[in-house]
Amino acid sequence: GLSQYSSDPRTEWDLSAYSTRDQVLEAMRNLRYKGGNTFTGLALTHVLEQNLKPEAGARLEAEKLVILLTDGKSQDDANLAAQTLKNLGIEIFAIGVKNADEAELKQVASEPLELTVYNVLDFPLLSSLVGRLTRVLCTRIKEKSNKENADIPVNTGPQLSPTDLKISAVTSKSMHLAWSPPLRPPKKYRIVYYPSKGGIPKEVVLDGAVSSLQLSNLTSHTEYLVSVFPIYDAVVGDGLRGVTSTLPLSSPRSLRVSELSHNSMRLSWKAAQGATQYLVLCSAAPDGAED
């Protein structure tokens, strides 16, 4: 699977899109470069939320590897997003080109860094990494598969995955999450949430016996993506995902003007719920300066 990113990540194709090497290479040849900003944290969260899920072709029993290719320093918190992936057992390889920040690459990548961090001076030099990177990736997959396969069930279904995510009591600053736990209680839950139009992902870790959460200090009138992941000792169950928008802030209503004189007027209105102050602006119509 492959995604490109700038300020808005974009999935080019999912894990399940192609089944042969030639198809993948043809898709690469037809790929159009996406220029723009460098929001690496948002991109890594996009990969977790959109690309590493069963609907996109991710298989629970397969090893999860992410290869990050970047030519600049991230404009958001890439380390927090990377840590979320790594905590879920996803291995990150970081490849820097030109102006990439090597310190950031080392923060983002999984251990051991001598196998997962690469840096070259220009794009044509990437070809020199292909052989070594291919061998490292294949070796890592075999090592992890041999070590963990005995513990990972191939078909988890309701055994390891929560169901029925309900988002309720939505206000301008908060919302309540609740879900039905899997048949086998997890060790803990990891809840990740962030604005759909871009923002730093935030996360909460809950004990596996808890199946609800109140999210607070949210931004008003904003669409949020929410995911709930069950964490076990040797496996991560399928995540639950939901989307909802916080309410706009309450507005004052029914503005009335009274007690007019040559240099004054009285304004009155119905209060806005939760407002602590009001800002009143007036200007001479139609083009007068604001007083």
TrEMBL record:
Pfam families: fn3, VWA. PROSITE patterns: FN3, VWFA. It comes from the Eukaryota. Residues 161-250 form the Fibronectin type-III domain. Keywords: Extracellular matrix, Secreted. Residues 1-133 form the VWFA domain. The keyword Secreted applies. InterPro entries: ECM_Assembly_Org, FN3_dom, FN3_sf, Ig-like_fold, VWF_A, vWFA_dom_sf. It is found in: Secreted, Extracellular space, Extracellular matrix. PANTHER family: COLLAGEN ALPHA (PTHR24020), COLLAGEN ALPHA-1(XX) CHAIN (PTHR24020:SF39). This is COKA1 protein. It comes from Cepphus grylle (Black guillemot).
